[in-house]
Design a protein that fits this description.
By secondary structure, the chain is an alpha/beta fold. The chain is built from 15 helices and seven strands.
Amino acid sequence: MDKINDPNLDRAERLSSLEQHEKTRQARPETGGALKASGEINNHIHTIYSFSPYSPSMAALLARDAGLCAAGSVDHDSIGAAEEMLAACKILGIGGCVGFEVRVSFKKDSTGKESLFAARKINSADFEGYAYMTVQGIPSQNIAKAAAFLEPLRKERLKRSRAMTDSANAILIDAGLPAIDFDNDIIAKSKYAEGGGITERHILAAVAGKLIDKFGKGQELPSALNSKLGIVVPPRLNSLLLDAGNPHYLYDLLGILRTEFLPGIYILPDEKECIPAGIVTSFAKSISAIPAYAYLGDVGESPTGDKAAEKFEDDYIEELFTELSNYGYNAVAYMPPRNTLEQLLRLRKLCSEWGFMEISGVDINSSRQSFNCPEVLREEFSHLLDTTWALIAHERLASHEERYGLFSEGNPLSSMDLKERIALYASFGKRFDLHRPEESAMEISREIEKG
């Protein structure tokens, strides 16, 4: 199991370990049968190629063992996990899909004039006029193109991360604490050299590592946070830091630093890093992928506990959908546990009116998070299971031949209503031999041609 999740091994070694693990499991009478599947899905799992405790192989394994029938990797500014994620899902016999997540500018509309959203908070807590989006269902032959597209964005974010680390070091040194070596403590411990992204969590993990190295895990560290950095740890979190045996210690400490330390060093990205939304949607379509706006919604009491109460796009969401259509989006991605039923029913109605696909997933980037998302099994959201299987079918069929992409103008099924086309693609996805999805794609493409 350790080798499956070892970031220092190469992809082939992790996959070989996963394959051996699966063969061993199947050979044991007590474990060798089919695992019970819950029917759940998750299309938005972060991996070590942005920030996560999990390699793509381990993420796929934990998803399968949690009962999920499909898993997808989505990393910040990176498509580095894609090939390993797809291969791991094939080994395990679950559906696999891949994409990436970026922040984009909504400062100007599709005509080049200042946008209605230039000074509005959309789905980013940090600043107005910028938004998160995903590009999903990337055909295998275009993964390299996606990596090349993301390369300048990764470089810009690296510059900003280095500058934020300099700010962090000024605070640490002033407090008499050891400084971070950006190259050795951050880049070397990331997957940047293999196309991975660097995020704020990498910086905070380096700060957390320095604190743990100096004060250890337990009684001294919470006291040091207060005396050295002026951070008062809430009682519930304090009890977690007092437990030296806490297996989630790093991530619990990182969560405190994200709230209490990051604002003091944070530098806003610019439009070299957050390029115009229309450029990203156009690129996504050029590689037969699906550009999706990432809905956040106003946050009251956060179901996942990782967002403070805050207003986002709900007050002007009808206007936003007009802009999304103008920018060329095909889909909206959202996370059912984050929102109220009222919010999501309103979102569903707007997606239907504007002809947007709905894509679901919950971002996994902490060891405390569960891979399960039982909300998608509720009657109101069971359609998200179908859209996931449609996404998987789209990705595999477009990998066989791009004109079979769900939104391709050259698709023989393009005259069908989108809802009907998604339903048909969902039926295709459910029929795939998930250990041999490429062969299934070839067979289904022949069916499509026959009509």
